[in-house]
Amino acid sequence: MSRLNEANTILAKEIIARYPKARSATIPLLHLSQQQNGYVTEEAMAHVAELVGATPAEVQGTATFYEMFKFRPVGKYLVNICGTMSCQLMGSEALLHHAEEVLGVKPGGTTADGMFTLEHAECQAACTEAPNMQVNYRHCHRMTNEAFDQLIADLREGKRDADIPAHGTLARIRQQIPAEKAVGPVSPDDPARPVWTPAPEVK
Amino acid sequence: MATYPWAAGYVDDGDRPKIVTARFEHEDSYTITRYHATEGYAGLKAALTRTPGEVHDEVRGATVLGRGGAGFPAGTKWGLMPPEKYPRYLVVNGDESEPGTYKDRLLMERDPHQLIEGCLIAAYAAGLSQVFLYIRGEMPLAHERVATALNEAYAAGYVGKNILGTDFSVDIILHWGAGAYVVGEETALIESLEGKRGEPRLKPPYFPAAIGLYGQPTIVNNVETLSNLPWLLRNGVAAYTAIGTETSPGTRMVAVSGHVARPGVFEIVNGTTTFRDLLFGDEFCQGIRDGNSLKAFVPGGGSAPWFTPEQLDVPFEGRVAGAAGSMLGSGAVMVMDDTTDIPTAALTLTRFYAHESCGQCTPCREGGTWLMRVLERVVEGQGTRADLDQLLEIGESICPGKFPHAANSALGLEATPFPYKMTTICFVGPSAYAPVHSALTHFRDEFEARVADTPARRQIPVTAVH
Ligand SMILES: Cc1cc2nc3c(=O)[nH]c(=O)nc-3n(C[C@H](O)[C@H](O)[C@H](O)COP(=O)(O)O)c2cc1C
Ligand code: SF4
Ligand code: FES
To answer: Is the pTM of this model over 0.90?
Structure first.
C-alpha cells in the first residue's frame, strides 16, 4: 500500500493538470507520496512515474538528487541542526554534540523508539538567529542546550502536535485554483500573443 | 528601535525609507485584509491603466537591480526575450539557500501578497500568462502563507482569468523544491521545474530569456526583486530613484550574522550605506560582540571573497565592491571577530559547496572534494606546508589565473578585482575555492601555525563522495 491512495491520486491529478507538461509535477508528487508514507517507496516512485508519464528510472533519478526525499523510514521527527557558517560561528557544533548525547545517535541515525532522526544540515535561511535547527523543517531559532531539551520533551509528550506535523507533511495548506478562474496551463507549443499585449508597430 | 516577535531577525530602526518591509510591523501583514488596508494591489491597478510597454519602461527606468546575486537590472533582463516569441514564462526564485542569506523567506512569510502583486505586474509587462513560484522545500511556513495568499487573491479576482475585469489573465502556480542548493541557480531551477535533477545548463545557449522553461523565453527573478514592483508602480520612477544612487537605486535587504552585537535583517539604502555603517552603526549592528575586534567579514553570501577591516568603507555599490575584490551577492554579511579560527571558518564554507556540487563538472566535483579533504587535514593538525600550496593549485584548476581578493596593506597586497575565469558550468565550483583563497591570502600565518614543516608532499587519499 505505498502507491498513492485514492484521495491522493485525485489530488495528484489536480496538481499535474496545472502544468504544461506533466513531468513538472514530479517533485510535488514525490512530496505527496512522502506525506502519505513518511518516506518515498519504490512503488510510490513507480506510481508517480505512471502519473507523470516518465519511466520509474527517470523519477528515481530526480528523487535521489534532492536531500528532502528519504528512501528508508525516518523518525517521526527529523531534527536538522544547521552547521553552515553563521551557525558554526555561533556554536552549532556544541549544539550538535549535545543533540547526539541527548538522542543517543549520530547524524543519520534514528532513535530506537522511532521518534527522532538526527541530521547535520546546511543553511536554513535564518542566519541572524543562529544557532538554528529545524524539526520537520519548522524553524527553531537561537537554540541553547536547555531549549533543545525542552523541545525534545515537548515533542515526546505530543505538546507540539498542533504546529509540527509528522515527517512528510510540509505545508498543511494547499493552493486551490477555482476552475472558473483558472487560465489553465500554457502550452509551449501555443505561439499566440497574449490578448492584452499589443502587436508591435509595423515600421 | 523595534523588533517584532513575528518577524524573527528583522530590525526596524531609524528613519530609513522602507520599500519592501513596510508592513512587517503588523502582526497580520500576510493577510489580504491588512494588505488592502496598506495600499495593497494599488500597484497592480496603476499598472493596468498603462500599456504593458509603459510598465516595462518604468521598471527599466527605475533600474531595479536583481536581488538574487548577480545584480542585473530586471527591466533590461525582460527586454532580452526575443520579440514576438510566445509563450513566455516567469519563474520566481524563492529557493534562498546561499550561506548567510535570510530575506526572501521573510518576504514570503510576512508579505506574500506583495510578492504576488509583483508577479502580476511583471507578467502584465512581459506578456505572459503563467507564473511558477518556486519555493525552497525546507520552508513550509512560507508555503502556507503564499498558498493562503494565492487562494485569497484568486477569490478576490487579482489572479486568474480577466483580472479586475480587464483582458489581462495569468495563473500563478505555487511549486516547491526538495532540498538542493544548486537549484537556486536559474537554469538548474528550470531543470528542476521540468521534473528533472537540478543540474545547471550551459550558458550559452541556455540563457533563460532565450531558451528557458520548456525551451521558451523565460524570466527568472528573485523574490525580493519582484517585491519591489508594487511600491514602484504606486510611487513612480522618480520616487524610487530618489533613494540610493543612480547605479544602485532604492533599498535592499541585508542580513548580518555572526559576531556582531546585534545581528539582524535590515532594509538599507542602496548604494550609499557602507559596511562600516552596517556593522558599527547604532541603528544597525552596533559593533562587534563583547567589545571584541573585527577580524574579517564575508560581504555577499558564502560565495564572496572576504573583506577585512580595511574594506569597511566600501558602500553597497556593485562596481565599488567588485573593484575592491569581492561582490555584494545576495545581501548576506557574515562577521568574524578576533576569536574566530579562520581555517575552520573557511572549511565550513568549502564543505558546504563541495557537498552541494551537482557533479557535472570535474573541476567542481573533484576539486571541491579535494579542497575540503586537504583543508580538513590542515584544520585537524595533520597537514603539511605543502598542503597549503596544494590548496592553491587545486583552486587554479577551478579558476585559472588571478582570483579576486581584497587589498591588504599590512601584507602589501593590492586588490584583484572581480570577476574570475572559471572552468565550470556554474559558480558552485569557484565558490568552494573562494573561502580557501581568501583565508590563505589574508591569514596565511594561521594556516602555517597549524601545519608541520615537512616539505615532502604526502599522498592525497581523496575521491569524490556523494
Ligand atoms: C549556485 C547558485 C545559487 C543561486 N541561488 C539563488 C537563490 O537561492 N535565490 C535566487 O534568487 N537566486 C539565486 N541564484 C541566482 C540566480 O541564478 C539568478 O541570477 C537570480 O535568481 C535572478 O534573479 P534576479 O535577477 O531577480 O536577481 C543562484 C546562483 C547560483 C550560481
Ligand atoms: S560547477 Fe559544480 S554545481 Fe555547478 S554545474 Fe558544475 S558540477 Fe554542478
Ligand atoms: S548558516 Fe545556519 S541558518 Fe544560515
So the answer is: yes
Q: What ipTM describes this predicted complex?
A: 0.97
Residue nearest to ligand 1 atom 7, measured at CA: B184
Average pLDDT for residues B333-351, to the nearest whole number? 98
What's the average model confidence in pLDDT over B285-293?
97
**Residue ranges per domain, chain A?**
6-71, 77-156
- Which cell is B163 given? 483580472
Residues of chain B in contact with residue A23, where contact means CB-CB under 8 angstroms, are: 194-196
Locate A130 and state its grid cell.
543562529
Q: What is the Cα Rg of chain B in Å? A: 22
Task: Over range B31-58, report the average pLDDT.
Answer: 98
| CATH 3.50.50.60 holds for A77-156 | no
For residue range B436-464, what is the model confidence (pLDDT) as tens digits? 999 999 999 999 999 977 655 555 545 44
pLDDT digits (tens, 9 = 90+) for A162-176: 999 999 999 999 999
Please say whether the beta carbons of B333 and B299 come within 8 A.
yes
Helix (H, G, I), strand (E, B) or coil at B254: strand
Q: What is the DSSP string of B391-429?
A: HHHHHHHHS-SPPPB--BGGGTBPPB-S----SSSSTHH
The pLDDT, as a whole number, for residue B466 is 41
> According to the CATH classification, is domain B251-333 in 3.40.1190.10?
no
What CATH number has the domain spanning B18-241? 3.40.50.11540
Cα of A113 to nearest chain B Cα, Å: 25
Could you read off the pLDDT of B323-340 as tens digits, one per residue? Answer: 999 999 999 999 999 999
Given B97, B147, B169, which is nearest A123 (Cβ)?
A: B97
Hey, is the C-beta of B419 within 8 angstroms of any chain A C-beta? no
Contact A123 CB / ligand 3 (< 6 Å): yes
Q: Where in chain B is the domain with CATH 3.40.50.11540?
A: 18-241
B342-459 topology per CATH:
de novo design (two linked rop proteins) (1.20.1440)
Architecture of the A6-71 domain: Orthogonal Bundle (1.10)
Pocket of ligand 1 (CB under 6 A): B 66-70, 72, 74, 93, 95-98, 182, 184-186, 220-222, 225, 426-428
The answer to whether residues B264 and B343 touch, using CB atoms and an 8 Å cutoff, is no
> Ligand 3 centroid to B85 CA: how many Å?
41
For ligand 1, the distance from its centroid to the CA atom of residue B6, given in whole angstroms, is: 27
Which stretch of DSSP H or E encloses residue A120? strand A116-121
| Torsion sign (Cα): B25, B26, B27, B31 | negative
Q: Which three cell numbers stand for residue B431?
A: 565558490
Give the residue from A91, A59, A76, A50 showing the smallest Cα distance to A158.
Answer: A76
> To the nearest whole angstrom, how far is the Cα of B391 from the nearest Cα of chain A?
20
Alpha-carbon distance of B445 to B449, in angstroms, equals 6
Contacts B299 to A, Cβ<8 Å = none
Please provide the DSSP assignment of B356-399 as one string.
H--S-SHHHHHHHHHHHHHHHHHHTT--BHHHHHHHHHHHHHHS
